[in-house]
Amino acid sequence: MGFSKKRYRELLKYSQQLEQEGKHLSNICYSDYRELLKYSAKTTGRLEWESRYSYAELMYLFLNGIISEGTLKIEFLGIQESHEQVLQELESNLIILSPNPNSDSVADLVHELYWTLEDLSVDSTLSLEELGSLIKENKYEEAEKKKEREIYNYVKKIYLKIQSFLNEG
Questions:
Q1: Tell me: the pLDDT tens digits for 142-168?
Q2: Which candidate, 45, 156, 158, places its Cα nearest to that of 107?
Q3: For residue 18, which phi and psi values (nearest 5 degrees)?
Q4: Residue 122 binned pLDDT confidence (cut-offs 50, 70, 90)
Q5: Is the Cβ–Cβ distance between 19 and 27 less than 8 Å?
Q6: Is residue 66 part of a domain?
Q7: Each residue's pLDDT tens digit, 53-99
Q8: Long-range contact list for 10-13, CB < 8 A, 24+ apart?
Q9: What is the C-alpha to C-alpha distance for residues 111 and 157, in angstroms, rounded to an integer?
Q10: CB atoms within 10 A of CB 82
């Protein structure tokens, strides 16, 4: 799919018109809805691109022991939330950002970071029974340390990849 600002704006206007009528684009024309989602994803990718320094700084602080995993998650989710708010504001005002050629690559790294933080905490990878068993056997701390090392290694890998995009305009 190419990126057409004109088409994106048309879809936004149409979607907004339908919402004023109490309807949703996905119920009227699913192909247009999917196309609008793709354009929105490109805009989100552009926002991720613009925030690449913030993501890199967060990872740097985590990797150097300056912030905890919990702080990394909270700050990361704060950036994500601000992107959602900016996207809503842009789309509601029909402001279209041009994608950056590297936006998709950076967005992929950001998604990789998200899933690393989401999937690798001990609590999210174990069932309640397994978690209870670890606690009873006094092995929870051991499992937690192992997961912390895994998270550290994944974050380091992502951090090294995002470095190649920091000096690009």
A1: 767 777 888 899 999 999 999 999 987
A2: 45
A3: -65, -40
A4: very low
A5: no
A6: yes
A7: 999 999 999 999 999 888 998 999 999 999 999 999 999 999 999 88
A8: 11/35, 11/36, 11/39, 12/36, 12/91, 12/94, 13/94
A9: 13
A10: 13
Domain membership of residue 43 as a residue range: 5-163
Does any domain span residue 168?
no
| 15 vs 124 pLDDT, higher one | 15
pLDDT single digits (tens) 89-115? 999 999 999 888 899 999 999 999 998
Residue recorded with tokens 């997961």: 147
Q: Let me know: does 144 contact 122? Beta carbons within 8 Å.
A: yes
Token pair of 157, please? 């890998």
Q: Which two tokens stand for residue 27?
A: 């119920």
Examine residue 169 and state whether it is found in any structural domain, yes or no. no
CA proximity to 148, closest of 126, 121, 169: 121
Number of independent structural domains in the chain = 1
Instruction: Answer yes or no: is 43 within a domain.
Output: yes
